[in-house]
Structure formats: structure tokens, C-alpha cells
Specification:
Shape of chain B: globular
Strand content of chain B: 5-15%
Structural class of chain A: mainly alpha
Strand content of chain A: under 5%
Number of strands of chain A: 2
Radius of gyration of chain B: 22 Å
Number of strands of chain B: 9
Strand order of the largest sheet of chain A: 1-2
Order of helices and strands of chain A: HHHEHHHHHHHHHHEHHHHHHHHHHH
Radius of gyration of chain A: 25 Å
Oligomer: heterodimer
Chain lengths: ~550, ~325
């Protein structure tokens, strides 16, 4: 860009990046401290299993959600069958459902004591678990299925877009040259959408690595639960930090591989809008199969858990509808709103600097600030607490030095730590959303505006902001949903006595009585639905 | 740079919402709200001292450690013994040498250095299926015997209640023998350790397993719960090791925080918690055994009969706590 952006802008960018990466740095520093042989003991006993479980789970969930999502995305994007228009957005709904809630509902149904097995026992006159085999839902495989059910929409969303944006002429060409629809899907459409699928799988794997509640409920120890246990069970923050470092290594490797795999691919993506006529018109059994597939997916990933949850919420309405419920809803809401606003603001500054700065290096802050998303909540919590605790003591020491009474736990004792952690984790989402919006604004607009004598601030306020409105809203909504759902960071960082809906619901889940928390769970889901539906609309209209 | 100022203002706004400590007592509690709140309200009525109580399942000790001298906590209430020890080990408590408390709490139920006091005791029982097993005379040692292959259910070995049981086994038998025992128990499990103590009783009812390990008060609590009464009715409650050393006892307890901002009031609260009124409340609300000698357990609890308790002083468990956690990892009990 030709704009002479003042130094203070890029300085602000670097400052933001420094604060956002602070937890990551603190974590790495903490991991280098010596600890009292706790880590070695873990390494000799259970750690290999934890690592294996984590990797296996990521792999299974990656494959699982890919297998579920790709056909659905293909049907919706390239085929025409009854209900297609509805499935298009209905299949996004599972995103609003926290995985541990789905897990709970299915466990209740499929456990030994649950209705499914009870009916089977009655039917076949079995009397003990030794009489028959039924796969255990509370297992690694079970967790993989639960996580796939709620995470597949990430891949679905990206694959759908990729399939829609693929140039139809290539597909036509392959058809003309004699390929069957099936073959052209395998040989042309699927390879072309590989970059999108890779991003989707990476997202799913990261979310899987970050999951704490499902695996702890299923008693499947992974690195995430190990971090939690090592910290609170062995009481060793350093050993926990070392574990976190291993986990980060795994995740960053994955992100790196994904980036590498995607690098060569983007050239092929050329957009020529897909018209309704370009879709395969499915008939007869094929049309029914597509419909049945999408319906089953919707049923198992969203409707069934949602209905059961609603039934619980109605049954236990009187016990659940109290002051606490309101308090926790309010806590969730204001934290989520606050975090969304802060993320937007920071992302806007970072992206603006990146866009208009004449200096190449000014794209660094926004890239650095996106690393937080890779930090799972438990890991992030350690990274946040370490520096904030130092800060708390420093502030109080200064007061003491002046002979005044300090403010106490200004940072770690308030919601500050929580808001900070959420911001670090979700800023990447806001940045990503703005990045894609910015791509749609032609640089010539910037130049025109500068030619007409606008200052950077005016360019941002008068030209960019109005054009970015949709991207801003979409980013804010995504951050909002994630903040409502985020559990592990909230569990570890909430000021003592502070609950939000997620921690409140999880307490019931871990006590095996979700019924009492069902109302709160429904609120999380509903609040998540509204942004999802809006988001889907805005995605459709931009196309 | 309006935006930077905006961020700063937002930041301050969220700080302002954090409640600054007032002069009331602050209690951190591992124990659940329904149990503690009525007792604390009674205390406030008696003395006029307000109590802010905050609950958490995990990490209270870690939090107090981090808060250091800035910590607002006065009294910590725990639901088991290892949490008390954790506080002591991390040097987060200050000793109380108070005559009222000392006369209320027998010596075996408090730290020799007055670092902590037990408030109630609970027995780690063995539940057995009414239908398939009936009442049994069982020792913890028996759980590793081949006759129980595929018949035992328990929650995670890492749960403090089980860790304390393993620690007591180490105290009686040494590490090597306990490890063998633990492997034996693991080999006998009907399913991977999961759920809480109530779930184990449900699993017995449903025929998943024949015996389960669980704390005594759950039995009473399930009896009182309409939805769970049938679970409790499907099992017998057995006190283990009655022919020899007695059943393993765990305790809930209290400790005075090292940096308690209002020590005097905190001690008043601690005195109150050992009084007959509070002890009776614990016994009635949560079906636990009071530690104060002249307070009787609830009628329901008394109906389970008298039993012999392990006379191992509670603080002896502490010495074996870390070893117990490590043994559990070594035999991969939960995996």
C-alpha cells in the first residue's frame, strides 16, 4: 500500500500481539522449570497412553467427521433433492451443541442401564453383561463418535462452499470426456476441494484436542485431561506445563502439515457461480437416499439430543428455574458479549494495519495473534495464570511500597483472567472473518480514498467499516458462540464462586445428573442457534 | 487512538465487576452448597458474622497457593482427608490451638499439630447385590481374589476417596503388597472405572457387577431420593474388615487459612462447626457420622448397625498419599 501509516499504528499492532502471545510464552518458560520428578513418573507410567489416546482420538474424529460431512456437503451443494434447501442450513445446527451434552444424552440411552440395552435384555432374556456383547459407549470409540457428530459441520461448511465454488466447467469437461458422475466426483471434485477439507480436518482436530468434558466424562484419559489432573491432582503446575508443551508441539505440527498440504492448491480455485441447473437432479431411490442420509445425520447429531434435553428441561423446570439460573445466564452472556467486542476491536486494528501498512513486517502481529486458537482451554489457563499472578503481586507490591493497601487479586481474582483467556483463544476467529471480508474490498477503494485526502482513521471509519459490516458481525457471532460454549478455560479461570452456563451444566454432567442442568444446556444451544442461522444467511447472500 | 482507549475502558469495566472483599468471612468449600449453606446461615444468625462461601470441586488448594498472601480465604472446608493434607503440604494453613475445638474433636480426628480438624467421618463400604450376593462378610483384601473376577465396579482410582483407601492399604501392608492387591482388583473389575459412587450402586442394581465400592452416606442419600431409592434398595451395605482391623474411614474437615484476613472470626466459625448443633446438622443432612462423641448419627444411619472402624490415625494416611497415587498410575488402574 502507498499509505504513509504512522508508526503508532504498527506499534499498537505489535503491542496487541505481545499481549496475546504472552500466555504462550509464559507456558513455554514455565515448562522449562524443574519439577519434582512428577513428569518423569508420568512419562514412565501413563503418559504414553495419554499421547496415544489423544492422537488416536484426533485421527478417528478427523476421519469420522470427514466421512460424515463430505457426502452431506456434496448432496447439498451439487445435487437436487427434496429438502435440499433446508438441509443446507439445518446441518449446521450441531455446532451449537456442546459435545459433552450429546455425549451425556447418548450415554444415558446406550449405557448398560439405559433403555436401549434394557429393551434388548428383555427381548432376548439376557440377564447379565456376560450374556451378550454391546459396545461400551464410554470408550475412546464412543468419544470419537460423539465428537464427530458435533464437529462435522466445520468440514461440512467448508466442503459445501468448496463444492459450490468449483468451476462447473471442469466437472462438465470430465463428464463430456466420459466420466460417470461418481468418477468425476472422485477424480475431479474431491481433489479440487482438498485444501478446504484439510482446513476443516485441522479445525476438527484442534477442537478434539481441546475437548475436556467429553473425554473426562467417558473416562478416556488424553493429554488435555492429563494437564488438568497433573495440575490439580499432583499439584504440579510445571509438570502440567510440560505436558502442555507436548500438546502444543502436536498441534503446531498438525497446523504446519495442513498449511503445507494446502499451499500448492489454492490456484485451482476459480469462482464461477453455480447455477441451480448445474446440480444433478436426483430421482427415485437416489433422491430418497440423499434425503435419508441428511435426515439421519440431522436426527442423530442434533434433533435427538435436543429433544431429550428439552424433555429433561421440562421435567425439571421447577427445580432449575431459579435465581442461580438467571445469574449464570447473565454471567455467560456478558462475558460472551465483552469478549466478542474486544476480539472485534483488536482484530480490526490488526487487520487494518496489515492491509494499509507499507511495511511487509506489519502483517506479523495479526499472524502472531492468531496462534491462540491452537491453545486448548486447559493449556491456555496455565499460560494466562502464570503472568497474571506475577502482575497481581507486582501491583500489590507497588501499593505496599507507598504504604497503601493494595487492591488484592485485581487480575486473577476477577473475571479479567477469564476474559483475557477467551480473547486469546478466539481472536483468531475474528481475524479470520475480517481477513476474508477484507479480501472482497478492492484496494483501489483505499487508493481512491487516500487520493481524496482521507487520513488512515477516516479510511477505516468511512470506507472500510461500512464494507466490513457483515464480516464484523459474522466474526463477532462466532466468537460469541464459542465463548458461550468454552468450558475448560472457564473451569480453571473463573473467579471463585463465579459460574456461567457452561461450568454450571458441566457440574451436573460430571455428577451424572444432567436433568437438573438441562434448562441451562438448552439456553446454550438456543443462544448458539441464532448466530448460526444468521451466519448461514449472510454466507448465502454474499454468494 | 480512540480504539485503544476503548479497549482500556472495557478492560476496566470488567474489573469493576469483580467484587472487592468486604469484612465478612470467606469460606472456600469443596463441600456442596446444600450441605454447608444451612449450617453457615445458622452461624450468621447466632453471631451476626456474615459468611461468603464459594464452592469448587477441584483446585481450591492450587488457587490458595497462587493467591498467596493476597488470598481472601479464612476457612477451608474439604470433603475428604487428602485435600486437608494437600493444604498442609503446600503450607497454606495456620495451626489453631483452641480449647473448645480440641475438646470437641477426639485426637485421632485432628492433626497432631492442630493444622486441621475432621468434622465428619464416612466409611468406605462394599455394596453387594441383594439378589445375587446377599450380605457378605468381606475384607478389602478379598476384592483381589479370583472369585470376584468380572464382578466389581468402582469409580476412578484417582478419586480422593479411592486414593485414601489405597493409602490405608499401604499403611497396613506396605507398597509392594498393595500393588499386587491393586492389580488384582483391577483384574476383577467388571468395567473400566467411571462415574461416581451412586453409579456403582446403579450398576449393581442393573446386574453389571455384584459388588461395588462406595461411601456410606451415598446409601442414605439414595434412600432419601425418590428417583434413586430403588438403586439403594437393590444392594446391601457391608462394613469391611470387621473380623480384623475395621473399615477404612475417611473424613471431611476444616482448616484455617494461613493468611486468613479475619482470624478471630474464623476461629469462632470453626468452634461452631464442632458444636452439637452443626454436628447434628451434618449427620442429618448428609448421613455422615459425626466426630463429636456425644452426637448421634441419624436414625437411618444408625439402622445400618454398629461397626468397627480402622483405628489407624487419619494423619497416617498422609504419609502414603503420594505413593498411592503413583501405584494407581503404575498398575494403570483407570486405563
Amino acid at each position: 500500500m502507498i499509505l504513509g501509516l504512522s508508526r503508532s499504528w504498527s506499534l499498537t499492532g505489535y503491542l496487541i500481539a505481545a499481549v496475546i502471545t504472552l500466555p504462550l510464552i509464559a507456558l513455554i518458560v514455565q515448562a522449562t522449570f524443574p519439577d519434582e520428578a512428577v513428569f518423569k513418573h508420568l512419562f514412565d507410567t501413563v503418559l504414553p497412553t495419554y499421547i496415544a489416546n489423544s492422537l488416536l482420538l484426533m485421527l478417528l474424529v478427523g476421519i469420522g467427521s470427514l466421512v460424515i460431512a463430505v457426502p452431506a456437503a456434496w448432496f447439498v451443494a451439487r445435487c437436487e433433492f427434496p429438502g435440499r434447501r433446508y438441509f443446507q442450513w439445518l446441518l449446521l445446527l450441531p455446532l451449537a451443541m456442546p459435545a459433552y451434552i450429546v455425549a451425556y444424552v447418548y450415554t444415558d440411552m446406550l449405557d448398560y442401564a439405559g433403555p436401549v440395552q434394557r429393551v434388548l435384555r428383555d427381548l432376548f432374556q439376557w440377564s447379565s453383561p456376560h450374556d451378550y456383547y454391546f459396545p461400551a459407549i464410554r470408550s475412546l470409540g464412543g468419544a470419537a463418535i460423539m465428537l464427530s457428530l458435533v464437529l462435522f459441520p466445520y468440514i461440512y461448511l467448508l466442503a459445501r462452499t468448496a463444492f459450490m465454488e468449483q468451476s462447473s466447467s471442469l466437472l462438465h469437461a470430465s463428464r463430456i470426456m466420459g466420466s460417470s458422475p461418481w468418477r468425476s466426483f472422485w477424480r475431479v471434485a474431491l481433489p479440487m476441494s482438498r485444501p478446504a477439507l484439510a482446513v476443516g480436518v485441522a479445525l476438527v482436530a484442534m477442537e478434539t484436542a481441546a475437548d475436556y468434558a467429553t473425554v473426562s466424562y467417558f473416562a478416556v484419559p488424553t493429554l488435555t485431561t492429563a494437564v488438568y489432573d497433573t495440575w490439580l491432582g499432583y499439584g504440579s503446575l510445571t509438570a502440567a506445563a510440560k505436558l502442555s508443551a507436548i500438546m502444543l508441539l502436536v498441534i503446531f505440527t498438525m497446523v504446519g502439515v495442513e498449511r503445507f498440504a494446502r499451499r500448492k492448491q489454492e490456484l485451482f480455485q476459480k469462482q464461477s457461480a453455480l447455477s441451480d441447473n448445474d446440480r444433478y437432479r436426483l430421482t427415485g431411490i437416489k433422491s430418497f437416499a440423499a434425503w435419508a442420509y441428511c435426515s439421519a445425520l440431522l436426527l442423530f447429531a442434533f434433533l435427538l439430543p435436543f429433544i431429550i434435553l428439552s424433555a429433561y428441561a421440562i421435567d425439571y423446570f421447577d427445580q432449575s428455574w431459579d435465581d442461580r439460573f438467571w445469574q449464570y445466564s447473565w454471567n455467560s452472556l456478558y462475558i460472551a458479549v465483552l469478549v466478542s467486542l474486544i476480539c472485534l476491536l483488536l482484530a480490526l486494528i490488526l487487520m487494518f494495519v496489515r492491509r494499509v501498512s507499507p511495511r511487509q513486517s506489519d502483517s506479523l502481529p495479526s499472524r502472531l495473534s492468531s496462534t491462540g486458537y491452537a491453545l486448548p482451554g486447559t493449556v491456555l489457563a496455565i499460560g494466562v495464570l502464570v503472568p497474571l499472578t506475577y502482575l497481581d503481586f507486582a501491583v500489590n507490591d507497588i501499593y505496599d511500597w507507598f504504604g497503601a493497601r493494595g487492591p488484592g487479586l485485581f487480575f486473577t481474582g476477577s473475571v479479567f483472567a477469564l476474559v483475557f483467556a477467551f480473547t486469546v483463544r478466539f481472536l483468531a476467529i475474528a481475524i479470520g472473518s475480517l481477513e476474508s471480508s477484507y479480501k472482497r474490498i478492492s484496494p483501489s477503494l483505499d487508493m481512491a480514498s487516500i487520493t481524496m485526502g482521507q487520513k488512515p482513521k477516516q479510511l477505516l471509519m468511512r470506507v472500510h467499516l461500512p464494507l466490513l459490516r457483515k464480516g464484523l458481525l459474522a466474526g463477532a457471532l462466532l466468537v460469541f458462540i464459542e465463548s458461550m460454549k468454552e468450558l475448560p478455560a472457564a473451569l480453571l479461570l473463573r473467579p471463585i464462586g463465579f459460574e456461567n452456563l457452561a461450568t454450571y451444566v458441566f457440574q451436573f454432567v460430571s455428577d451424572e445428573k444432567l436433568e437438573h442442568g438441562a434448562l441451562a444446556a438448552i439456553v446454550i444451544v438456543f443462544v448458539g442457534l441464532i448466530p448460526l442461522i444468521y451466519l448461514n444467511r449472510s454466507l448465502e447472500h454474499t454468494r | 487512538m480512540k480504539m485503544v482507549q476503548g479497549t482500556a475502558i472495557l478492560g476496566l469495566a470488567c474489573l469493576a465487576s469483580s467484587a472487592m472483599a468486604d469484612e465478612a468471612l470467606t469460606v472456600y468449600s469443596y463441600r456442596q452448597a446444600f450441605l454447608v449453606e444451612p449450617i453457615l446461615e445458622q452461624f450468621t444468625q447466632n453471631t451476626g458474622i456474615k459468611v461468603n462461601v464459594v464452592f469448587a470441586k477441584d483446585g481450591i488448594a492450587e488457587r490458595i497457593e497462587r493467591e498467596g498472601r493476597l488470598s481472601p480465604v479464612d476457612v477451608v472446608l474439604t470433603s475428604d482427608f487428602s485435600r486437608l493434607m494437600e493444604l498442609v503440604e503446600k503450607d497454606l494453613v495456620s495451626p489453631v490451638n483452641n480449647d473448645v475445638i480440641n475438646s470437641n474433636i477426639p485426637e485421632v480426628y485432628r492433626s497432631p499439630t492442630n493444622d486441621w480438624y475432621a468434622l465428619t467421618m464416612r466409611v468406605r463400604n462394599v455394596y453387594s447385590s441383594k439378589e445375587r450376593t446377599g450380605k457378605i462378610d468381606i475384607d478389602y483384601e478379598d476384592l483381589a481374589k479370583p472369585e470376584y473376577k468380572g464382578k466389581i465396579c468402582t469409580r476412578s482410582g484417582k478419586h480422593p476417596y479411592n486414593v485414601a483407601l489405597v493409602a490405608s492399604m499401604i499403611a497396613h501392608h506396605g507398597e509392594a503388597e498393595t500393588k499386587t492387591w491393586l492389580s488384582g482388583v483391577k483384574a476383577n473389575l467388571a468395567r473400566k472405572p467411571q462415574g461416581n459412587d451412586r453409579d456403582q450402586v446403579l450398576a449393581v442394581k442393573e446386574g453389571m457387577c455384584d459388588v461395588a465400592i462406595g461411601n456410606s452416606y451415598y446409601y442414605g442419600n439414595m434412600m432419601m431420593d425418590e428417583n434413586q431409592k430403588s438403586w439403594a434398595e437393590a444392594v446391601e451395605i457391608n462394613f469391611p474388615n470387621q473380623a480384623n482391623r475395621g473399615a477404612h474411614i475417611n473424613v471431611s474437615g476444616m482448616a484455617l487459612a494461613k493468611f486468613a484476613p479475619s482470624k478471630d472470626n474464623a476461629i469462632k466459625l470453626m468452634e461452631f462447626l464442632t458444636s452439637n448443633v452443626a454436628q447434628q446438622a451434618y449427620a442429618d443432612v448428609n448421613m455422615e457420622y459425626p466426630v463429636k462423641a456425644d452426637v448421634k448419627p441419624s436414625k437411618l444411619v444408625a439402622s445400618w448397625g454398629d461397626f468397627k472402624a480402622d483405628s489407624l490415625p487419619i494423619y497416617k494416611l498422609a504419609e502414603n498419599h503420594q505413593a498411592a497415587v503413583k501405584l494407581l498410575d503404575e498398575v494403570k488402574f483407570d486405563l
